[in-house]
Input
Amino acid sequence: AQRVTQPEKLLSVFKGAPVELKCNYSYSGSPELFWYVQYSRQRLQLLLRHISRESIKGFTADLNKGETSFHLKKPFAQEEDSAMYYCALSKRNQGGKLIFGQGTELSVKP
Amino acid sequence: DAGVIQSPRHEVTEMGQEVTLRCKPISGHDYLFWYRQTMMRGLELLIYFNNNVPIDDSGMPEDRFSAKMPNASFSTLKIQPSEPRDSAVYFCASSFSGSLVPYFGAGTRLSVL
Output
């Protein structure tokens, strides 16, 4: 069965510190992996997609198939990064149907 | 494009009442998804459509929930009768088969008293 695990419910860092939000997945095929961000009570917004290999708002994520991980990283956290972050997995033949992790709340303190 | 549009944004109702949530997907998108977000269970897929046809409704909690997509630009999620445990934020999302990236609406926050 497909599963996405985000082991940390809450991650608290100080402004300027590096951030790593962990995501591990289980899937036997070749998944599509995403990171979505949800600012307070707003819609989920696409942050990153693994195949695009972009850096958005300073965040990057690398797919490690050996470790089945897709950790989200940023070298210097900003207060405006405080939000809920969801890692999600999609199967290629299901139109973008997403399986979400439980989410990690990032709190960046001044 | 205005993105995925959901209405209402907030709904407060009493137990036993019928609730209808509405979604307008992004024009040209051929997939539509309904998700539910709760503190206890996180984000769960309820049902999704491809070209207006329901493909997978295994996430629909029980017979009280039903979803329709009468045309490419409109979908509804209905709960009848509603119960307090249905209180959640319901998100609609749409995607295009050429990119497979789901875009989310702002959600409907449902409170059943």
Notes: Chain B touches chain A at residues 30-31, 33, 42-43, 45, 48, 50, 55-56, 91, 93, 95, 97, 100-107, 109 (CB under 8 Å). The first strand of chain B starts at residue 5 and ends at 7. The two ends of chain B are 36 Å apart (CA to CA).
